[in-house]
Amino acid sequence: MSRKLDTHAKQLGALGHPARLAIVRHVVQAGPGGAAAGEIQAKLKIPASTLSHHIERLATAGLIDSRREGTFIYYSAVFATLRALTDYLWEDCCKGGEGGKSSCC
Amino acid sequence: MSRKLDTHAKQLGALGHPARLAIVRHVVQAGPGGAAAGEIQAKLKIPASTLSHHIERLATAGLIDSRREGTFIYYSAVFATLRALTDYLWEDCCKGGEGGKSSCC
DNA sequence: CCACTGCTTCGATAATCGTCGAAATATATG
DNA sequence: CATATATTTCGACGATTATCGAAGCAGTGG
């Protein structure tokens, strides 16, 4: 049906792994400046190649951006996309509702 | 590390499929009363067995509840869980931020 | 130019997921 | 009880995902 549905499902799927969720939370908490790959690896304690795959999945989904700075690569959250994603879940909440919106949204 | 991380990753993973995302959106929009399985099937146009598996995944993740009413089974969103999930992504946003929170959250 | 550090790509393997028809179960109705 | 409808379970399959070491590439500093 909609392209949005597929895109958002892909993004949610990208978040659907403990390591990747931890990565996203880390860069969200790091703010617009982002966090270095090495810093993330140190926190998650996983092999570099595995981390790289996870990061690629998140980048492909459009959830994180990368920026090279010398030897380091900084990853930062794409806040607008993330916001659109969380909003999407609540879109038209209770639109068929007879119970009133107060109980859920 | 944290149990929350795994739980929420599982929930996000459950949402990471177009059919399941559509199901959740449908029940969210249906409100606390929920939506019948048959109604959902009619909307998604997928075989009953496939739908059943998707629904089971969502239920296992704690995102939807089921309620039997005669021959029909109504599924409804677990709004509190859904809200906790979306909030989780933004927890401590920009806590290390020097750029000010306004730019992201 | 050589070694070093930071990260990605390759390649291979195991595990999980997605799909759907057929058969089973549950509930209502004649 | 017989039958019809609603939904789940079974079983099997191919497709995708997750993992990680080894090897490669990029940028820095001696």
Please explain how this structure is put together.
2 copies of one chain form a homodimer. With 105 residues, chain A is α+β, with helices and mostly antiparallel strands. The first copy, chain A, has one domain (3-89): Arc Repressor Mutant, subunit A (Orthogonal Bundle). Chain A is 56% helix and 13% strand. The first copy, chain A, has helices at residues 3-15, 18-30, 37-44, 48-60, 79-90, and strands at residues 35-36, 64-69, 72-77. Chain A has a 3-stranded antiparallel β-sheet with strand order 1-3-2. The longest helix of chain A has 13 residues, at 3-15. Chain A starts with a helix and ends in a 15-residue tail after the last helix. The interface between A and B is large, with 44 and 44 residues. The structure holds a DNA duplex (30 and 30 nucleotides).
